[in-house]
Fold these 2 entries.
Entry 1:
Amino acid sequence: MRITKSHKDNIVAYLCLSPAILGLLFLTIIPIIGVIGISFTNWSGLAEPTFVRFDNYVNIFTEDFFFYKSALVTVYFAFGAVITSIIYAFFISIMLNQRIPARGIIRSIYFIPYIIPVVATNVVWSWLYDCNFGAFNFVINSLGFDKSLFLQGEKTVVPSLILIAVWSTGNLIVIFLAGIQNVPRAYLEAVEIDGGNTWHKFRHVTVPMMTPIIFFNFLMSMINNLQVFVPAQALTKGGPNDSSLFLVYLIYREGFMKNNFGYACAISLVFFVFIAALTGFIFKTSDKWLFYEGK
Amino acid sequence: MSKKFRFAALALSLALTASVFAGCGNSSSSGSSSPSGGSAGAESSVSETSKAPAEKVEVTYMAWYNNETEPAETQKVIDKFNAENKDNITAKLISVAYNDYITKLNTMASSNTLPDSAMMSESQCIKWAVNGKLADVSDMYGTDEKPLDSLAFTYKGKPVAYSCANEVLLLYYNKDLLDKAGIPYPPASADKAWTWDEFVSAAKKLTKDKNGKGPGDAGFDPKNITTYGAQVNTLAWMWPVFAISNGGGVCTEDGSELLLGKPETIEAAQKIADLSLKEFVAPTPTTSATFPTLDVTLLSGKVAMATGGQWEIGVSLKNSLKDGLKYGVGVLPKFKTPVTLNTGGPNVIFNTGKNIDNAKKFLKWYTQEDNNISLIQSGVWMPVSQKWYKDETLMKKWADNEVHPPFDQYKTAVIDYAMNNAKQVPWYYLPGYSEIEEVLTPGMDPVWAGTKTAEDAIKNDIMPKVEKIFSANK
């Protein structure tokens, strides 16, 4: 066979693509297939694995002492964190879009929490939340209120963690800010000409024009927050009374602390299906409230 | 595309491809201060042969550390072993931070790169035996050098590990605070142990709010307590000591039956919770979690009497002696019988290595009191073999120094107590203990916080799960 020029081009193209393809293959596709395979075994790393069919999956729903509570607190955390941080980030980005002095500096300050290593910020927050000597309880106590348990109370732990999550949403602010700056002035001026006030501009122009960005932020941060792990690992170890035993932490505990790799893989897949279903659902309902200029 | 550019792109992508595969290779283990926890022996003996005439075998030993100075301390002992050059064995230390230790061990197990010997977490030890990873160590010691029976982790009647040190639970107190309140010191011998009620009434007299009032006084403010009379540790393995004293516990000493649901256990648990909830003499676990180390807690007068392990003498209490801490040690209060728990981190030998016999020789040397006497004299460890508890001169050799409390007190409150009144924590023999603990720890949180009674939590939440775990592991 004669190697034509187009053959040559193809070969070069594939060779150039090979790092990406191999990376995808070895670092994503094969591990995922591996996870699916392992989830049907009782592999512990210590003894030879045996094939246990759907036992792991059945056990998640019938035998596991931690799964339901874990799923519940994960969803509680994720919805709490996503809704609060969207509202917070939207509000802040509108503020930051005003003509205020030192706007650039203030904008960077809001972005800083997002770029500091999470574990470091978590440690600082744990000092603030400290029951006895923490800054929050010092303020609460000097105002005459009862001290809060924060991370050590069953009812307060998730809200406390949500506050940390909201504080560190600099990325949402940046994306919102970019969106707000893209709202066409013409529409806003049209409202003005028709005699509308600031609220009308916000309600009928800014918000509808922003819905695709709100949707994007909502979806991405929902997926991120459902996979919350660091606060459970760094601050609470899942406690008190499993109130912050988030699913990813449960998976980590099953897999890497208890050596139930097969079981941990099964939980991850169940969790994956849940996230996929939720994402699908959000996409489906999005038609009702999304506004695209092009449509 | 110019030829030159095309060539550069090709070279670059090939390099990237290579690096992808390099990433899959067996790189040296991360997280350890010394390189590679890989399979020992043969591969590393090559570099040693040049120095020694006879062929050396290397035994790897993995240990965790809690602070930066620990690996160096351990390394010193290992260096001593290597200097003695026993049977041409050299030991190599792999130090891993405590928080990553179990994860690391599990990962090494699944990739077949376990060290020859290692420290093991107490609660996980039997699980590794169940999984068939631990070597039988019943032939490691001769009869007179053997550690105490109470320090053997046993599975199916065979010892699979021995604790590297002995530890018991004790009651520490700040002498100044007790003198000021006119309260006699807690008894230092088991036969005179305080009853629970005596303990509570002493604690009441010691507890003071910010106005100097105690729990019996009018206007006492339980929300602003500055000195707690007592602090009882509620860790899942520690609090059952009082249940045992009351005739309950987690399980029977042969591991055949659960005692967790017994009324005696529930009563003891409730009384411990009531210390902070009803009597207002003790901090809740959430409050004590924020306390500094035991020596500072006692010295600063936050707490007058506190339960704690023997190790506190060397780990914490000795640090505040120079600041004027005057503390004493006594036996725990009792419900019915005077009881303490004994424990100690096990050293295991993995049966996956090629070096089992040499690892045994190393571990045996490593755990002999003469070789780690500095740790024992510093108050962190207690010896593991019987003669150190029976022979007065040997006892004085490790316990009669300025770090330990006065010898007369220490002898009855710790040495004799450890010999005569100590029961094993169930992790020495109960398969499934780690899973039980995983249920017990969060399950008791509401009891200590006062949102559930001990009866409700233990009977309705904990027992159904623990019974399942127990029967699954039988």
Entry 2:
Amino acid sequence: MGVQLFYDGIDDPELRTLDGYAKRGGYEMLRKALEMEPGAVLQEMLDSEVRGRGGAGFAMGKKMSFIPGGTMDKYLVCNADESEPGTFKDRELMQKNPHLLIEGMLIAGYAIGANKSFIFIRGEYDHQADVLDAAVAEARAAGYIGDRILGFAHTQDLVVHRGAGAYICGEETALLDALEGKRGNPRLKPPFPAVQGLYRGPTLINNVETLMNAPHIMRMGGKEFARLGTANSTGTKVVSISGCVQRPGNYEVELGVPTRELVYGLAGGPPEGRSIKAWFPGGSSAPVLPGTDEYMDLPYDFDSIAKAGSMLGSGAIIVIDDSISIVDVAVKTAKFYRHESCGKCTPCREGTNWTVKMLERVQSGEATPMDLDIMASVQEQIIGNCLCVLGDAMAMPIGSMIAHFREEFEAHIDAARERNGLGAAIPQVNRGRQGGAYPMREPAGIEPTPAVV
Amino acid sequence: MAIDPSQVRRFAHGSRVPGWDDAADLSKDPAVIPDPATTPVPEHIRAEIEAQMAKYPDFRSAAIPALHIVQREHGWCSPTAIEQAACVMRLTPAYLTAVATFYDMFSTTPKGRHDVFVCTNISCSLLGADRIHEAMVEAAGRDPDFHVKPFECLGACDIAPMASVDGEYVGPLEETDCARIVDDVKAGREVLPDKQLKRRKIAIEYWREQTLGGPDARRPSQDAGPDDPRR
């Protein structure tokens, strides 16, 4: 099983209470941190090289070091708006070990000098928010939260803020807007939140699991912590595995384990008699990868998955087996992003809408293979052209599904056209490379015509 | 080529695009911050909203908590509910309506008291969530007390297909569970106590118990579990 930083004995119901947590060495790392200089705590975080667990994989220590020094209103926000399809690790961690998050936030808050901190938890996580509320009240009563924590000069307040159901609020600037009581629309960056974030003050935003690493880093020491996992992906990762597997759930592993061990070993692989067609390595925003041996043998860490053309994202594996039509998955994925697009910028608002419309045509059999090229080019034009990455988050998986499973899409179109009595699709016109970054496959036996300008 | 206007498909409100039926009445003056003298607000609502406002450096941050409070009180974010929140927070109703319409958990149309959110996102739909949603609508759809809604990922793919019943996560659901959910909610009992997420152990433990438990395992496995010596 390897090292279990988070999941060792996490099912103990006592752990949710301050007494139970203190019995297991809780809040000692906070004391240790407060006895050190903030700069030394920050150095430990930098040494640990731990990367953000929320999706972008940006180094936590580096992000902390962007917060300006000096006395001013600085904020720490914990992003607990876990809405990425397939991801459910933060829910379990917060519900079963709320004090670890609070301690992590206090340590991080001390390192950057933040006096106000917030946990932005999604509104649907009612039970988890109640657990956190109770834990915060306990910690406040014990003097861990509030003025002059444990008699040291550091003062930090902590508020649990419940959202109201919007995927976009997981995006850091949209989260800040939602926390300020507005519609959750992303902001233009720069200025980055580290410079101008919540209430226009410097703000550090980190994912639940990232912040929960802070007490462990203090206990082990940053350099020692960095020896867990691989060189560029340190530490352990709670991986959420769901979809067509026999034993779905959260599993904590050291980064760099073979994907096969996760999917087949821990999660039991696909149901009997089926095989894996495709899998999302990091939530539904990550490009899909085929379930072939080549990809199953990839080490599960940030760099290896990125090299294979996808991303580790939030560390959520969704397995799709061969009984599922990739067209259905594509429609579901695109519809989700259409629903969650905030509508602030055009490529995302229109791109998600038209992608759904085109995919539905594919599904119902009114499309021709040429629509796949149009769709792929729409995805190309979304990527990188929006304020936030929600548009990209649809474009990447849909684009990758078309790239990897084009034959299945075409077979589906042909079969559906046949069923509807529409006859064969119009043969593709070879437009060469003008058709976008995914050129159409050239029809066999026809010489490519020179591009017409 | 001339377009025959009678052939253009239109929505009931006469527009070719949806969403124009709630348009502002331009003959009215814009709504201003409600006058406390003429807007009765129940005392406990006022106290709760003010407590929320005190928690933040900027009182406007309490917009979402305030809407949660009035929606719980009124059943939905009705114009009265929003007016009350606006009165306490000293904001215009338009500001709060803009916020309320953005988020999925707020309803600006009347809804049933009991929320049943059925997750129909990828992981759940791979395991038949659309069937569960249909069965749930079948079981509770006509009951005005229930508000059955297909929802995007609720963050509980380990118990897929799942639903959130008044905030209580239950799963994995089968079609027969839908009638039980309706019965449990109506009787005021705990919903599907054996399928509640909050009682479930972490995956390693849970599946170890299931595998040892024999025929009860939902998806029996050939692999002996995490202890399998082959691993």
